[in-house]
Amino acid sequence: MPDQLGAPLDQPVFERLALVGLGLIGSSLAxxxxxxxxxxxxxxxxxxxxxxxxxxxxxxADHVTGxxxxxxxxxxxxILCVPVGVCGVVAEAxxxxxxxxxxxxxxxxxxGSVVAQVEPHLPxxxxxxxxxxxxxxxxxxxxxxxxSLFHNRWCILTPPDNVVQSKADLxxxxxxxxxxxVEWMTAQRHDLxxxxxxxxxxxxxxxxxxxxxxxxxQSEIFKYAAGGFRDFTRIAxxxxxxxxxxxxxx
Length: 250
Ligand code: NAP
Known about the structure:
This protein is an alpha/beta fold. Helices cover 43% and strands 15% of the residues. It has helices at residues 24-35, 49-58, 68-71, 87-94, 112-118, 165-177, 187-213, 218-223, 227-236, 240-249, and strands spanning 14-20, 39-45, 63-65, 77-80, 103-106, 127-128, 131-133, 154-157, 181-184. A six-stranded parallel sheet has the order 3-2-1-4-5-6. A three-stranded mixed sheet has the order 7-8-9, with helices on one face. Strand 4 (77-80), helix 4 and strand 5 form a beta-alpha-beta unit. The longest helix has 27 residues, at 187-213.
């Protein structure tokens, strides 16, 4: 059947891919990585037992664990798909298990803060290539993910100046396999651009909907919401914890 994701690759990009955090973004990565044969073996790591059970039920990975150091063992690529604010804690927990030559990446909506949290924990024998797929919805959790989430969307890679280019190119190849259009930027530039195109609009939507929710006329306001305001209410229904985390980090 024709499929906008295209045919699976003959050879996977990674032998062993470990995803930490199987929410909207992590579970979407798992779904499309399987469909496109981007990894021979897929490991799912999540702190939540409920999420782990659901990932198992959905058949999203070959191995599911709550133990980060064990899960990243032997992986040639590890992608952090956890909230921005816990990336440092996860990096510290996984450092003992990392294989020499592995690519470490993330999907965080803020780059400067993630780099500052993660880099100090990484051993010299791994390659850190931060990334941000500019794709998402207002939903969370493993049931919210879907395989076409990254199709024809931007993914911004922010490698450090001293990156081994072949490793950054391999991650680019992976994201292209996921269907994304890849762009390079510095972390600082990324955070400036995303502050005005994403973070500030979210902050304004939360503030406006919260303020109107406290008006006496709120039932009429929400009843007749259409067009522009409907988009504000949709954005403001995003996970407030995640967005507080993002706005604080940038
Ligand atoms: P999500 O649906 O809430 O998923 C996050 C997952 O990480 C949850 O399963 C969570 O478990 C788990 N987790 C939290 N702390 C953990 C830890 N210490 N160790 C292991 N697992 C942990 O969030 P998401 O929307 O996928 O966002 C994930 C990342 O993607 C964030 O950094 C965000 O900035 C970025 N991003 C999001 C979007 C978007 O539109 N949502 C777009 C682009 C990038 P619990 O549920 O138990 O906390």
